[in-house]
């Protein structure tokens, strides 16, 4: 119970930095599982939106006061478990950055919807000893419809959120399993 209260407080503090997030619809949710610990400013949380039941991952870095959402899919949830003959396929997903101001690195990537910055992300990785090893840099594109990811993600905060999303996934699996949560 204490962990849930601490998680909610951390998410509220991150969200409270800008009222625009409420207008973008990412406030009304139930937390399902989290990798949050008092010793680590980074965490990956799985949430369910109250109004429509959609599930999102929330990567957060309290030390930089940043967060990003990634819409849940079983493919993303299990990305590190799917090694093929030629290794792991690239991880491709949409990083949703709320409360963004223009005029920063990565502004030209993806698309904007008010204060939401939608950044298509292409990341290579490997798994060693059960740990996800990110192969930087991460890449993106200048539109949501692009089939090629030639632009580099340059903002260190965005790069860190991608890394948190990837490296915390095995721990999130442990938390989901410990709570007996059934996911689609």
Which range best describes the helical content: under 10%, 10-25%, 25-40%, 40-55%, 55-70% or over 70%? 10-25%
Write down the Rg: 16 Å
SSE arrangement, N to C: HHEEEEHEEEEEHH
Strand % is 25-35%
Largest sheet: 5 strands, antiparallel
Mean pLDDT, to the nearest integer, reads 87
What is the tally of helical segments? 5
Number of DSSP strands? 9
The computed structural class is alpha+beta
List low-pLDDT spans.
1-24
Report the span from N to C terminus. 25 Å
Give the overall shape: globular
Give structural notes.
24% of the residues lie in helices and 34% in strands. It has 184 residues and is α+β, with helices and mostly antiparallel strands. The strands form two sheets. Strands 5, 6, 7, 8 and 9 form a five-stranded antiparallel sheet that branches. A four-stranded antiparallel sheet has the order 1-2-3-4, sandwiched between helices. Strand 7 (116-128) and strand 8 form a beta hairpin. The radius of gyration is 16 Å and the shape is globular. The two termini are 25 Å apart. 30% of the residues are buried. Residues 1-24 have low confidence and may be disordered.
Topology at a glance:
Elements: H1 2-16, H2 20-23, E1 29-34, E2 42-49, E3 55-61, E4 66-71, H3 74-77, E5 91-97, E6 111-113, E7 116-128, E8 131-140, E9 151-152, H4 156-167, H5 169-178
Antiparallel strand pairs: 1-2, 2-3, 3-4, 5-7, 6-7, 7-8, 8-9
Task: List key phrases describing it.
single chain; 184 residues; alpha+beta; five-stranded antiparallel β-sheet; four-stranded antiparallel β-sheet; 9 strands; 24% helix
């Amino acid at each position: 119970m204490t962990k849930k209260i601490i998680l909610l407080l951390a998410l509220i503090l991150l969200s409270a930095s800008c009222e625009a997030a409420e207008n973008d619809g990412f406030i009304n949710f139930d937390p399902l599982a989290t990798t949050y610990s008092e010793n680590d400013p980074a965490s990956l949380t799985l949430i369910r939106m109250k109004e429509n039941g959609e599930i999102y991952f929330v990567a957060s870095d309290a030390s930089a006061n940043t967060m990003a959402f990634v819409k849940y899919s079983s493919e993303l949830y299990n990305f590190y478990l799917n090694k093929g003959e030629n290794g792991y396929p690239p991880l491709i997903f949409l990083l949703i950055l709320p409360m963004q101001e223009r005029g920063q690195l990565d502004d030209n990537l993806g698309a904007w919807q008010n204060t939401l910055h939608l950044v298509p992300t292409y990341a290579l990785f490997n798994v060693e000893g059960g740990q996800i090893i990110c192969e930087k840099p991460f890449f993106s594109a200048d539109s949501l419809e692009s089939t090629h990811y030639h632009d580099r993600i340059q903002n260190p905060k965005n790069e860190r959120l991608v890394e948190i999303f990837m490296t915390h996934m095995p721990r999130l699996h442990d938390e989901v399993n410990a709570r007996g949560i059934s996911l689609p």
